[in-house]
Amino acid sequence: MKKVGILVGREKTFPVSLIESINERGGGETVAEFVKVGGVRHDSSREYDLIIDRISHEVPFYRAFLKRASLEGTVIINNPFWWSADDKFFNYSLAAKLGVAVPRTVLLPQKSYIEGITSDSLRNLEFPLDWQAIVDYVGFPAFIKPFDGGGWKNVSKVNSLEELWRVYDTTGTLCMTLQESIEWDRFVRCYCIGQEDVLIMP
Q1: Which of 8, 78, 97, 123 has a CB 3.0–4.6 Å from the CB of 15, allowing a cystine?
Q2: What is the CATH number of the domain that holds 116?
Q3: CATH assignment of the domain containing 72
Q4: Is residue 185 part of a domain?
Q5: Residue 65 belongs to a domain
Q6: pLDDT tier for residue 3 given thresholds of 50, 70 and 90
Q7: Could you write out the three-class secondary structure of the chain?
Q8: Which of 83, 100, 127 delimits the end of a domain?
Q9: How much is the pTM?
């Protein structure tokens, strides 16, 4: 029997429907359930053949657990090892190189730094930033948001340079991007499976 685990956060509709669908179609040979995880031993054995991960990008403990599970042969979707290359700014840049249309985006230096970072630590940083050139390139309205993470955390829509500065001044040690706002009438997510099938999910 194959066992599928679903690791999720606050979302409810998608994971419940997915579990029901897998269990209905599995015919008893494949079963799905929500993953339950507590203290994880370094020598733990495999519990799942496949884990579908929807939350480890926000919970480092889950990400470490998933890496450990992969050592036992568990297939993980999405691959937890991609996290090291999974910042949004890199992904925007990569997508543009591959010919995918991407909103105009600028990576911004942090507003603040952890203790111990001095002006000598930042001597390669252009200061002050050429804010006018940045907003001339991106335009308004725009979104200022972290270069990594997700879930619409710390995302603000700004309509002027003054508004941008007000938000930027509150971002602390977060590394941010400023991204062109694209007006749209339909939103879809595209999933690529096996580097062959692209599924569009409204």
Answers
A1: 8
A2: 3.30.1490.20
A3: 3.40.50.20
A4: no
A5: yes
A6: very high
A7: CEEEEEECCCCCHHHHHHHHHHHHHHCCCEEEEECCCCCCCCCCCCCCCEEEECCCCCCHHHHHHHHHHHHCCCEEECCHHHHHHCCHHHHHHHHHHCCCCCCCEEEECCCCCCCCCCCCCCCCCCCCCCHHHHHHHHCCCEEEEECCCCCCCCCEEECCHHHHHHHHCCCCCCCEEEEECCCCCCCCEEEEECCCEEEEEC
A8: 83
A9: 0.65
What values do phi and psi take at 134, rounded to 5?
A: -65, -50
- Sheet-wide strand order for 142-146: 105-108, 176-180, 142-146, 156-158
pLDDT tens for each residue of 151-178:
788 999 999 999 999 999 999 999 999 9
Q: Residue 164 and residue 91: Cα distance in Å, rounded?
A: 23
> Is residue 192 situated within a structural domain?
no
- Structural domain total, the chain: 2
* pLDDT, tens digit (0-9, with 9 covering 90-100), for 40-62: 888 889 999 999 999 888 788 89
**Residue-wise pLDDT tens digits, 179-197:** 999 998 988 877 777 767 6
Identify whether 105 is part of a domain: yes
Say what the pLDDT of residue 202 is: 61
